[in-house]
Structure formats: C-alpha cells, structure tokens
Amino acid sequence: MKFNLLVSTYRNREDDCISELWYLFREIGDENVEVRKAMVPGLLLVRTKLDPFDASKKLGEIARERPWDVRYTLKLTPIIAVTSDDKEEIKRVAVQLALERIREDESFRITINKRASSISRKDLINDIAKDINRRVDLKNPDKVLQIEIVGRDVGITVLRPSDVISIVKIISS
C-alpha cells in the first residue's frame, strides 16, 4: 500500500484508532481514507487523498479543540514517498527528496526509525549524508530527512520538526 501518513497508537488499540481515523478524516474531507495495520503493533499506514501535512495539522487542531474526539491517535507523521526496503533504493529516493526540498541555505538532520528490519541505521545515514551537500545540524535543524522503516514498508519524508503532530503533546499543553 502506498501510504502518505504514518500514525502511531496504543498497542492493541489499532482497531479503535482505525475507527477514530475514519471518523476524523470524514470530518476533514476524505470519506475514502484507507487505513491498515502495519506489521508492527501500534502503527497504522494511512492513504488519504488530502495533503498529508494539511491533514495532520487539521487533526491536531481537532485534538486541541475537542480532545475527547481524539483518544487513540498518538502521533501523525506525513510521508512524501514510499519505497521498498532495498538499501540502494532508499538511498536514491532519500537523496532525491532531500536535494529537492532542502534549500542550500537550510540545515538538516537525518532521522531513521526502523522496526522489524536488519538495515543498519548508521550505515544508511552515512551513505545518504555523503550525497547531500547541505549543512548538518543535529540539535536544531531547519528540515529533517526522516526515514520510517516498518518491515518491508519504507516511508521517506522531508519536514520541519513541527510537521510531526504529537496529539499527546497537544492535549497535555
């Protein structure tokens, strides 16, 4: 499935989160959202016709205004590209996205979240970083090249740190 949003939820509450997402996405304008469980507990792969960055922000706003309607969705990460778990293919797509979406005057960091995969995080970061001629800032980057490896499903995105919507932080603030 080509997904464009990675959603985390509580373990064993995936079905509740799927129902919640169907309800919330209908409210923001996507009645045909596709949601499936990832091979890892607590993760859902979402395919929406909406822009994933806008959709996650809208869901964050709903959580801020009506926290009782967002009980099972914990975090939303917009995804730009999906590829196979082939290391060379991940590198190719990641470098291409980084060069397209990170300006030369911007700093960046590479973040890899891997689950159910034997790919070496350190080797992958080194292979990708050497082909991106942008300034690295590990603490306060302008953009993050984020790679989400979930078994054979690999989502790659370039985002500002504020683009990852943490419902838990929104509700607790």
What does this structure look like?
The longest helix is centred in the N-terminal third of the chain and has 15 residues, at 14-28. Helix 4 links the parallel strand 6 and strand 7. The strands form 2 sheets. The protein has a 5-stranded antiparallel sheet. The protein contains 5 helices and 10 strands. The protein folds into 2 domains: 5-79, 2-Layer Sandwich (Alpha-Beta Plaits); 81-159, VC0802-like. The protein is globular. It is of the alpha+beta class.
Ordered list of secondary-structure elements with their pairings:
Blueprint lengths: L4 E5 L4 H15 L5 E4 L5 E5 L4 H14 L7 E6 L2 E3 L3 H15 L5 E9 L5 H9 L5 E2 L6 E8 L2 E7 L5 E2 H6 L1
Parallel strand pairs: 6-7, 6-8
Antiparallel strand pairs: 1-3, 1-4, 2-3, 4-10, 5-9, 8-9
What is the gist of this entry?
This protein is α+β, with helices and mostly antiparallel strands.
Write the CATH architecture name of the largest domain: 2-Layer Sandwich
Low-confidence stretches: none
* Succession of helices and strands: EHEEHEEHEHEEEEH
Q: Span from first to last CA?
A: 34 Å
Question: Total helix count?
Answer: 5
Radius of gyration: 16 Å
Any idea of the CATH topology of the largest domain?
Answer: VC0802-like
Number of separate structural domains? 2
| Major sheet size, sense and barrel closure | 5 strands, antiparallel
**CATH class placement of the largest domain:** Alpha Beta
Coarse shape: globular
How much helical structure, as a percent, in the residues? 25-40%
Number of strands: 10
